[in-house]
Amino acid sequence: MISTHNPATGQKLADYEELTKDGIEDALVRADTAYRSWRETGLDERCALLEKLAETYEANADRLARMCTKEMGKTLSSATAEVHKCATAFRHFAQEGPAMLDDITWQLGGGGTATGRWLPQGAVLAVMPWNFPYWQAVRFLAPTILAGNVGLLKHASSVQGCGALMEEMMVEAGAPDGLFQNLPIKSDAVADILADRRVVAATLTGSEGAGRAVAEQAGKHLKKVVLELGGSDPFIVMPSADLDDAVEQAVQARIQNTGQSCICGKRMIVHTDIYDSFMAKFTGAMQAVTTGDPYDDATDMGPLSSFEQRETVLDQIAKAQDEGAKLEFGGEALDAGAHAGGAYISAGVLTGIDLDGPMAKEEIFGPIAMVFRAEDIDHAIALANNIPFGLGSAVFTQDEVEQERFIRDIEAGMTAINQMLSSSAEAPFGGIKNSGHGRELAQFGLHTFMNLKTVMRLG
């Protein structure tokens, strides 16, 4: 049995019957049957389904958003925006995707041509996290449908209601049976599913440990895998930056989704010339953050996704303090009054982190900012790269020479200039180092699980 709970109240929401081995086999049969038909379906029909899915998500936006808020605690406004972002992704691949699947032709030196054709491969297993329960899954689902593949979703246990609703949306949009299935299973069932010949690839967003386990299984069975394993992204502010804008976006980066976003800056690296000014504005804004009922439009930040997640963050704060860091304010469990019963925590700021200590290299998945002082651009880049992760980064500078240095030298899959990093269906998404490998979204995400077949012709 898989149970879900409301992190804002601590109350149990629902129980979901875990799939048995027979149930998993039935799901794989349905997926394989759907693939045999869907792979031969024309692009027009695939795109029509994507358009219908966009309409279905929009028509059910409030229902989807409320389930998301109830299961993982994000504000209702944020959950609603996430649903509409999913609709945008479905439409993007419906409208722009076909051109991404055009044949590629090369002239051969010895005469004749070679043509590359994009062909589907089968069922793709997605192992997805709870922090953006719809968007994370749609990042794989939209291109999967367009490619002619089929999708199997192993969602986080805490958001089973969201996973079930996603499958319901597919049915409502008129998708063929088995084209997309939400599998109520636990992590121990993933290895056998990956081993099955009917599953051709996997994509995972989650922890390093989960990524290593899935990559090991995928490698064992020679199956392709895309991994997005989080990060502790640098957020660099240089003297030429618009300081007010940088502060505003730094605060948003730390409180968005209650700090539970892989690509929002977690380590604020500020040039010494503006460090004091930045800190005065930043700490004031962080202290003004309102934490409370996620259904209230006046709330900036809801609870963390679970009490376990809150304990993890509190333990990391204590660990940083043991290593000599100073907790400037916040970072406390909120248990009284309106926060009673929920997994609430106050926004906080850590300074003086030991650069050689473990916490300088860990990801704090909560509304806690780690702030570092940089002496110059070389020092800022060194601080940015002083971690095992390499997902995203954000740099605030009006100096074009500095911008090019950061683009070239920060070890990350993505860099945002004068804005906090975000994901979009139009741009490739992914990281390097311990943040994983492969790319989602754009044409690269579409092509990832397709067969580029080379066709040779004479004359």
Automatic annotation (TrEMBL):
<dbReference type="GO" id="GO:0004030">
    <property type="term" value="F:aldehyde dehydrogenase [NAD(P)+] activity"/>
</dbReference>
<dbReference type="InterPro" id="IPR016161">
    <property type="entry name" value="Ald_DH/histidinol_DH"/>
</dbReference>
<keyword id="KW-0521">NADP</keyword>
<dbReference type="InterPro" id="IPR047110">
    <property type="entry name" value="GABD/Sad-like"/>
</dbReference>
<dbReference type="GO" id="GO:0102810">
    <property type="term" value="F:glutarate-semialdehyde dehydrogenase (NADP+) activity"/>
</dbReference>
<dbReference type="InterPro" id="IPR016163">
    <property type="entry name" value="Ald_DH_C"/>
</dbReference>
<dbReference type="InterPro" id="IPR015590">
    <property type="entry name" value="Aldehyde_DH_dom"/>
</dbReference>
<dbReference type="GO" id="GO:0036243">
    <property type="term" value="F:succinate-semialdehyde dehydrogenase (NADP+) activity"/>
</dbReference>
<dbReference type="GO" id="GO:0004777">
    <property type="term" value="F:succinate-semialdehyde dehydrogenase (NAD+) activity"/>
</dbReference>
<protein>
    <submittedName>
        <fullName>Succinate-semialdehyde dehydrogenase (NAD(P)(+))</fullName>
        <ecNumber>1.2.1.16</ecNumber>
        <ecNumber>1.2.1.20</ecNumber>
        <ecNumber>1.2.1.79</ecNumber>
    </submittedName>
</protein>
<dbReference type="InterPro" id="IPR016162">
    <property type="entry name" value="Ald_DH_N"/>
</dbReference>
<keyword id="KW-0560">Oxidoreductase</keyword>
<dbReference type="Pfam" id="PF00171">
    <property type="entry name" value="Aldedh"/>
</dbReference>
<dbReference type="InterPro" id="IPR044148">
    <property type="entry name" value="ALDH_GabD1-like"/>
</dbReference>
<comment type="similarity">
    <text>Belongs to the aldehyde dehydrogenase family.</text>
</comment>
<feature type="domain" description="Aldehyde dehydrogenase">
    <location>
        <begin position="2"/>
        <end position="455"/>
    </location>
</feature>
